[in-house]
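Re: the 239-residue chain
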Amino acid sequence: MQILKELGIYICGGKGRFSKETPNELLAIADKTGLNGNELVRASKLSAKVDNTAIQDGYQLYLHNFILSDEGNWAVVQQGMNDADGTARRYHWHSENMKSFVEDPHKGIQGINRGNILNLTANEAQKNRKGILEISHTNSEKIMQDFANLILPNHHDVRASDVDLKKLGTLLYITRENQPENFEELLLLKGVGPRTLQSLALVSEVIHGAPSRFRDPARFSLHMAEKDGSSVSRSNQCL
C-alpha cells in the first residue's frame, strides 16, 4: 500500500498476490480515517467480480489497484491478460457519478474490441440480469427439469454443451438457501465464477428470451503484455 500524505491519497492492491491484500488494506485505512471499510471492501470485490465474471471478454485479471482519498472518493484500475494473443486490457472505475456496479459502471475500458461478447453490464442486459435473479430464487430441481426439456438445438445461440449443468445445479441450491436480493449480491456469492454465470445467463436467455451478448464496450488500445506482467500501450486510437 502506498500513502501520498500530502494529497490524502492511498493506493491499495497491485499485481497477483498483492491484489488479494486490498480488503485488509482498505479496512486498515478505514480505521484511521473513519470511512466505511465494509463499503470500500465491497466496492473492491464487486469491481473485480464484474470485470472477471459479468464481462467475459477473454481477459483474466492479474492487476487490481484501488485508489482512495481521505474524503472517501475512489477509483479502480484493473488489468487483464489474454493468454491467446498476449494482449492486455485495462478497466477504469470512478466512484463519482457512478449509479450502479452492474449497469454501465465503467469510466472506460481500453483494449482491442472483440465484437459481441457476454456482457451482463450492458444496459440492454437488464432483462437477462432480472431473469438470472428470478432463476436463482426458484426451486433448483424445477429449473433443471424445465431446462432439460427445452429443445436447445433449435436455439441458434445456445447449445446444451454451453451450459455446465453440474455447477449450475450446485449454485442454484446455494442461491435458494441465500436468496440474493439483487444481481450484485448474486455476483458476490462464493461459487459464482465465469463459467457458472455464463450458464445462468444462457438459461435466462432460453427461458426468458433475454439476450446476454452485446457489443464489447472496449475502445481500441493495444497493450502488449510482457512476461513480468507489465504491458506496453501501442495505440490509444478510439474506434
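DSSP finds seven helices and eleven strands in the chain.
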